[in-house]
Amino acid sequence: MVSAVMCRRPGQNRLHDAIVGTAQLRTEGGVACRLPERHAHDVWFGYGFNPGLRRLADARAIGSFAARGQERHASLWFKRRGMGMAVLEHPACETTGHGQHVADPAAAVDGGHAWRSRPPGDFEPPGSRNDPRPCGGRAQAATACRLRRARRGAMAATRPRRLSLQQAAHRARPTPPRDTMEFDQVCQLARRISRPHRIARGAKFRLRDHDPADTGPLGDEHKPAVKEALEAGRDALAQLQDMLYAQDRWSVLLVFQAMDAAGKDGAIKHVMSGVNPQGCQVYSFKAPSAEELDHDWMWRCVRALPERGRIGIFNRSYYEEVLVVKVHRGILDAQKIPPVLLHERVWDERYRDIRGFERHLAANGTLILKFFLNVSKDEQKRRFLERIEQPEKNWKFSAADVKERAHWTDYQNAYQSMIRETSAPHAPWYVVPADNKWYTRAVVAGAIIDGLSSLGLHYPKVARAQLAELAAAKKALLAEKR
């Protein structure tokens, strides 16, 4: 039995769809063939009678790809070889013609003749003695000529083939990291776990609607699975960061804001532990220095923005100017700002400046992801006590942290206003539940992977001039005397 796989007519600028793995075979040349589902992997041999298919080895390769369910490679083979029409022999099919459902068999067969069903061992090429098709004269001579070319191609295919440097570079061009299906699954999981906490438009945002102890559909019994997924996420993040660094087009800014003991440092440590330190930089912004107070309030953060190809992490940021400065008005008075400018609209102006600043960064190739780790007051108290009671954590505790708890409500209102005023699709906030550290880290990792995977990152392609330089360098190295 012979079944049409795909067809490319002269003048067409794209390859027709062919899904061999599910036995759904389609063409736009008037033929629609479908093989039985149970025989999808019995396809064992490919052969072509169109002049565009010049080598028997090509047809065999297509058949081999199809038998293994690698329809993508078969499609690429078609595209590279510029083939017209190829056929696959399916030993299990009993229907005469070109498949079980044929709209126009003559449109897909050389010379307009349909083949008869044959056992696998009785396959005969066109023009042979047992060929059931009537042929003679010029048709027979042309068929014999094509058969000779196919035989010569099969013999040539047995010889080792030397690739040019350009062909080798093309074949060595990296594909998406790791196994494609595994990488796609990690990205899909990252999106599912992080998107429910994403705030892209915050006009109606209310902080009280977000439970700090929320773990989505997951429970404590899912902790081992989440930790395993986090390991896979670290691998995916490391490979995405490697492509970001190599491509050198985008930069990434990650902003972390939270109350004390919410887990900012731990989230950064665990999520970013697998990335290359050369492409990542972390800045922690404390109380401004005398030099920083002599500049505008955004100056010290602008100096620390990441370069293209790098990931910049702000552990606290310019958002402190609408949080702690808003809660403690005395800090604003100490910033050497002319008193005439300290009017009631100062916070609205700062929100406006932040929105404009982030819009400018996004328009110039910076991916901005902002995280508010939402911890409850009770959980913060438990962590403070843990820091006091455990000697190895005493260094983390400060008496000023307890004093700030007295302003808890003011801080919650300030965070709510901040998210309402500065959320945007190009700079979204992620309100991350922070009472359960394992879930906090999973959401943060998922958001970063989701953001990076949306950039279309890839390794840079090698230009022809560079290939020529590589060839010259290789030649010089091989010519060196030992």
List key phrases describing it.
482 residues, 6-stranded mixed β-sheet, 3-stranded antiparallel β-sheet, single chain, disordered N terminus, 41% helix, 12% strand, 12 strands, 17 helices, alpha/beta
- State the helicity in percent bands: 40-55%
Low-confidence parts: 1-135, 165-181
Strand order within the widest beta sheet? 7-12-11-8-10-9
Shape: elongated
Give average pLDDT, whole number.
74
Gyration radius from CA atoms, angstroms: 32 Å
> What is the number of helices?
17
Number of strands: 12
- What is the structural class? alpha/beta
Strand-and-helix sequence, N→C? EEEEEHHEHHHEHEHEHHEHHHEHHHEHH
Distance from N terminus to C terminus (CA atoms, Å) equals 60 Å
β-sheet strand percentage: 5-15%
Largest sheet: 6 strands, mixed
Topology (SSEs and partners):
Blueprint: E1 2-7, E2 18-19, E3 24-26, E4 32-34, E5 45-47, H1 56-67, H2 71-81, E6 85-89, H3 138-157, H4 165-171, H5 180-194, E7 198-199, H6 223-247, E8 251-258, H7 264-271, E9 280-284, H8 290-293, H9 299-302, E10 311-315, H10 324-327, H11 329-333, H12 346-363, E11 366-374, H13 377-389, H14 399-404, H15 408-422, E12 429-433, H16 437-453, H17 464-479
Parallel strand pairs: 8-10, 8-11, 9-10, 11-12
Antiparallel strand pairs: 1-6, 2-3, 3-4, 5-6, 7-12
